[in-house]
Each structure stands twice: as structure tokens, then as C-alpha cells.
Fold this sequence. Notes:
single chain; 209 residues; eight-stranded antiparallel sheet; 6 helices; globular
Amino acid sequence: DKDAEDLKELTDAFTAWVQENDKDYTYWMLWPQFHEDSSEWDVGLLGAWTNGAGFGGGYDAWMKDDDDVGEMFADVLTCNNSMAAVTPILVPEGGDEWGAGTVWFQRCEREEGVRLSDAVAAHRKASMATTAMGAESRSWAFVPVLGSGDPDFDYYHVESWPSYSELGESFDNYFNKGGWQDVEAPLRGRVSCATPNLYRYSLMHASGS
């Protein structure tokens, strides 16, 4: 069995490889907190590039020489891989990456005739309504692209908070201060979303660092 020390050794080696070979890459570690199937996995790795060219170059570098870090992954973790195209919903320009916090993934479907751009615009209005009440969050749409099979939804609505306190304030604004009315209005008739799954995350490496 592998433990936290084995995971740290792996992430240290992977971070060192990324710093040397894939400077456009950012990645986080995720741990299930409130999740419908949390018993099925222990930890997740979420990685991102700023564009498709960065993804391609990063994978080319990895396939050419992973410095045996791939063997470490195989030894420490049993992984399933998938990829999504990411569209920002509400992300401030030039904002620093949060070092840790909470994030939820919520499966969403577009109503018939609703374009992805319309769905993103509806989520943006909903997010702006909650942030206007004081809670700090960032959000994106993750559209499955590779390795996801035939999903029964269109995209993930992904929203992040820098702490449980900020998440709790969002809940308070939504449930106790009438925010649900402003959040639900732009989504109604456009998208329908399942109950989200919540994770704790830690930033392991930011691009350019």
C-alpha cells in the first residue's frame, strides 16, 4: 500500500519535471469531500495548459522523456485519464492562482436549442449575482473532449472558492439571503444541473513558476 509520503515523493518528482520541461502547465491535487462515490478513489490530479499548443508541446515532451516519472505514477497511483476543453465563466483578469481551497464539479445539460455560449452567459449572470453579495469565487465550463466515453451530460459547471469560509458565505447568500432567486433566474429554461460534488484542492505548480 502507498501512503502520503509516497504521494509527496511522486508530486515532488513530477513538479521538478514540469518546471524543466512544461512551463505552460499548472496542476492541482484534489481530494473528495462531499461526493456521491468518494469511496471509489482517493486523490485526483487536475492539470491545465493555457492553450492547445501548450498541451501538445507538453505531451510531446512527456512522451520523449518523462525521466522515469511515469513509472512512479504507475507505482503509486492507479489512474483513469480524461480531457476537457475549458471556457471561463467568471475569472478575474490577472488574478493570482489560489494556493488551496474548495472546488465543485456539477454535471449540466443544455435545454434544446440552447448553445454552449448561451449556457455560459447564463452561468456568468448567476455567478455575478452571488459575488455581488460578497462571496469570492471563480467558475468555468469543462466540456468533455477525450477519454470520457459517451457522457449523459453536456459539460461540468466548475466553481472554486479559496476557503470553506467563502463557500459557506456563498451558501448563506444563496439559501438564507434570497440569492437563489437571482441565481436561478438566468438558468431557468436554459440549463439543468445535478447536485455538485465537492473537493478540497491544493495548487502544486503554477505555469511560469
